[in-house]
Amino acid sequence: MTAESHDLLSVRTPEQIVKSLQADRTPRNIRACLPPADREYFDRDYRRAMAKATEELDLAPVNALLAHWWHMARMKATGEYEAVLERGARIQEQIERGEYVPGRPLREVLAERASVLGVELDL
User: Fold this and answer.
1) Which of 7, 13, 97, 99 is deepest in the core (most CB within 10 A)?
2) Name one Pfam family in it (predicted).
């Protein structure tokens, strides 16, 4: 029996998944906390980040990837992910109707995030 098939047999509540993610931020646990449909994407992204880290002798890409997938696992377990998608769809509909949508410009948000990561963006 593989580890993945064992994970599928042990269904956990959202609370159990969040608690697990808080206690253990290892790649193995983050992957186990993701819905099965997302694990292939996690594997692909993780392998790419590890290859890049090996080439550049820099773990920053791996750490950034793990932070991203940790948040995804948490959001998907708690239903926050679907809420974000629904909000995005409502905003897109408002934009398409020509309505004003309050918020910050995307360029500003991306520039702020890039500066936190120490990355330069050509916007």
Assistant:
1) 7
2) DUF6247
